[in-house]
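Sequence, please.
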């Protein structure tokens, strides 16, 4: 993926995701499968994941070659009560953090993209890979939301 493609995907997934934050309560309670997260839970997860990945990106830019710990998304969902956490709060967080990620991608994707870090679970990774993870992770959850809405 090049910088132009990355930024386009970051912007497209942002626009689509922000639209989903405005769904009705009935729509937010839909799930894409038995025992799977509801749309509300997915959106709350996306806001939290965005902040975690944003922190990682900033760390990799500022101090490469460090170990960065994974986060337990299931624990976050349970302990932060994704099933009823106010969606409006996370909509604003998601939007602001995504704007900053887009800015950082524009500034640093190419000149510092090879900066390395060690992810505590997946091993050696680069800044470029982490930027791409933001967009692809979001795209995957948009697909799940689309499946839930189609049910």
């Amino acid at each position: 993926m090049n910088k132009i493609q990355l930024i386009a995907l970051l912007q497209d997934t942002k626009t689509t995701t922000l639209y989903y934050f405005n769904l009705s309560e009935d729509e937010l309670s839909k799930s894409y499968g038995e025992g799977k997260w509801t749309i509300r839970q997915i959106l709350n997860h996306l806001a939290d994941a965005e902040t975690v990945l944003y922190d990682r990106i900033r760390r990799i830019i500022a101090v490469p070659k460090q170990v960065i710990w994974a986060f337990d998304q299931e624990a976050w969902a349970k302990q932060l009560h994704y099933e009823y956490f106010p969606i409006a709060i996370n909509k604003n967080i998601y939007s602001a953090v995504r704007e900053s990620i887009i800015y950082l991608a524009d500034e640093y994707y190419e000149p510092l993209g090879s900066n390395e870090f060690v992810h505590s679970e997946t091993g050696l990774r680069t800044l470029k890979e982490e930027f791409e993870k933001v967009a692809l992770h979001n795209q995957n959850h948009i697909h799940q939301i689309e499946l839930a809405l189609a049910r």
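The first helix runs from residue 3 to 20.
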